[in-house]
Design goal:
This protein is 30% helix and 26% strand. β5 and β6 form a beta hairpin. Bound molecules: adenosine monophosphate (AMP) and magnesium ion.
Length: 351
Amino acid sequence: MHDFPRYSLLATRYCLILLFTTVSCSKPDPLYQEQILALGALVDISISGVEPERAQQAASAIAQDFNRIHRTWHAWQESELTRINAQLPGGAPFPVQADLIPLLTRAQELSRQSEGLFNPAMGKLIGLWGFHSDEPRGPPPDPGAIAALVAQRPAMNDLRLENSLLQGRNPAVQLDFGAIGQGYAVDTAIAHLRRLGIENAIVNASGDIRVIGKHGARPWRIGIRNPRGPGILASIEMQGDESIVTSGTYERFFEHQGRRYHHIIDPRSGYPARGLASVTVLHGDAVTADAASTALLVAGLKDWKRVARAMGVKQVMLIDEQGKVYMDAALARRVHFEITPAPDVEITGSP
Ligand code: AMP
Ligand code: MG
């Protein structure tokens, strides 16, 4: 599952792996599994407890959701978003499709709560680093160009949204929803499954996961990828309706003159965030977990608690560049390490 070719979605990741419980009870629940290629990414769908035909129909309905979201939100392939980005610098109000408004508004709110560390308005900076590409290659951009974009301070509150009209008030704003696109798609898919009467499922968009219900009598188990090498670092049992999302610096990067430059950019410096290798967030919905995982990776060990609190996020696992794991006691009770020796863990206070 780690080696599929680089694909294109808003962002890419494949850091979480499903661990299916193979132990079956006397009357095993049917498990339907399908992998679809949607949003240019691999999406694993697992549905438990319904007949295969019904599960298959549900999986194709979800594939359509993912494709629609791709056509809407892709940051560099032609999409509704690229059309919006073309109009924003003009500064005049223009109409946007009604179904785009909830995510725009939610992204504004999440950005504000994160003190701007989750900043989907800095698409120009991401593009400047070459991460608007299926295969980022470097070299790093000119420092003067980075400083110039940072100085223009593109922010989500530069957008004005009124009566379905969107207006850009800072010509430097270009939207990039790479940090929440997968989470949004996963939430949309789970909502759709529920409407179809499916109560036990996992939707895993390259590591952004939301789970509902159980697999038979047992909870779903999820593996968290080891940011320092192949394989699984730890596993966790999911409790009912819950999402788990990881942002990792290993997901997208390029190397130049012996240095590695990854895709999560600190909006304050304009450079890749430093200090943490990955952040995993458990939360009810996947969009919040997705925005928070990105924001907390930028916030780093010094500031993550304050930002997590403001974003309403409580369960967080951080791994620093040396492989040390930080998490609070409640999460530590749920996490089971799958490597030996287990990593060095520091139990933190909860956010
Ligand atoms: P994620 O893997 O969820 O952390 O998302 C990373 C993707 O979001 C990158 O590939 C960029 O497209 C975009 N991105 C990078 N840094 C930020 C940031 N600080 N705020 C919002 N989006 C970002
Ligand atoms: Mg994210």
